Amino acid sequence: MKKLAVPFLLILILILAACGKAEGESGAAESEVSDTFTYESETGAVEVPTDPKRIIALTNGPNVLALEGNIVGIDEWTGMNSLFEEKLEGVEIVTEDNLEKIIELDPDLIIAGSHMKNLDKLGEIAPTVSFTWGKLDYLDQQVEIGKLLNKEEEAVSWAEDFQKRAAAIGDEIRAEIGEDATVSVIESGNKEFYVFGDNYARGTEILYQAMDLNMPAKVEELALEAGVYTFSSEVLPEFAGDYVIFSKNPDVDNSFTETDVWQNIPAVKNDHVFEINTKASTYSDPITLEYLLDFFEESFLTK
Predict the structure, then answer these.
(1) I need a surface site. Which of 133, 151, 154, 254 has the fewest CB within 10 A?
(2) Which CATH architecture does the domain made up of 168-301 adopt?
(3) 36-150 with 168-301: one CATH topology?
(4) Which residues are CB-neighbours of 109 under 8 A, at least 6 positions away?
(5) DSSP assignment of 199-217
(6) Residue 293 contacts by C-beta under 8 Å, 6 or more apart in sequence?
């Protein structure tokens, strides 16, 4: 019996060892698989990290910041936006042309615009996902970034909550200013002005989509479909609503505010002009939207 028992014991040990090894290999394989997942992008499936650690955002950086993504490279326009200054401390400014710099930053995920150059080369450096500006609305864009960063639930939760809060504040504003009151969003340029439709940042998505406030008829006619309309100072009164959100560009000459054309606009006379900084208002990400929602609530309801 002893002679039989020894070989049997050795066989049992070998079987258990093989099982343990197989389980270990299986566990390792599962761990390796869980490090990435397939994201369905505009251009097809892209294998991306489940938990990206070094993101280069050539576009949609603010959306990434809102989900606390770890950005190591950012575009110049986002980099000089005062709303993101603290979150971007130490982050490098890069473009799609700075391939050497991008390689040095060793990204594990690159987010780009579909219009950008070198997308193929970027894809050789790290998994690259491109988005077409304006293809998704401001809420769906945030949800899509949430999917990319494996934080879809968090993004959806924010979008649903923001819609509810903005709609409720919109109800209060309409009760305060009147259901028929109009609001226009006007921005200063070097020698021209811009008026915006309902999806061109500067708070337009909040005012016209979430809050359902009214545009002046001329703005609806010329800017709603196009998104933006350019005009000269002489016709400023034609585009000014009962209330004006003035997107003031600090880098241009704003002396027009001292002219009779501006001073005689009813919204100006009635102190119904609310000024925002162009540089801090040209995105439609959660950080910017929350900032502008607070601003609109305070401006319309506490005057």
Answers:
(1) 133
(2) 3-Layer(aba) Sandwich (3.40)
(3) yes
(4) 48, 49, 52, 54, 55, 56, 126, 127, 128, 129, 148
(5) SSSTTHIIIIIIS-PBPPH
(6) 162, 165, 166, 169, 206
Sheet arrangement for strand 71-74: 92-93, 71-74, 55-57, 109-113, 128-131
Tell me the CATH number for domain 36-150: 3.40.50.1980
Judged on CB neighbours under 10 Å (0-12, 13-18, 19+), 94 is buried
Q: 146 is written with which tokens?
A: 């949430």
* Blockwise average pLDDT, block size 10, the chain, 303 residues: 48 50 48 78 96 98 98 96 95 97 98 97 98 96 98 98 98 98 97 96 98 98 97 97 97 95 97 96 97 98 84
| Residue 165, pLDDT score | 98
CA-angle at 157, arms to 154 and 163, nearest 5°: 140
φ and ψ of 73, to 5 deg: -145, 140
Are the C-beta atoms of residues 111 and 285 closer than 8 Å to each other? no
pTM of full prediction above 0.90: no
pLDDT of residue 19: 52
Instruction: Map out the domains of the chain as residue ranges.
Output: 36-150, 168-301
- For strands 109-113 and 55-57, give the pairing: parallel
Beta-strand relationship, 44-49 and 36-41: antiparallel
Q: What is the dihedral of CA 79, 80, 82, 86, to 10 degrees?
A: 40
- Asked whether 273 and 242 are in contact (CB, 8 A), the reply is no
- Identify the burial level of 151 via C-beta atoms within 10 angstroms of its C-beta, where 0-12 means exposed, 13-18 middle and 19 or more buried: buried
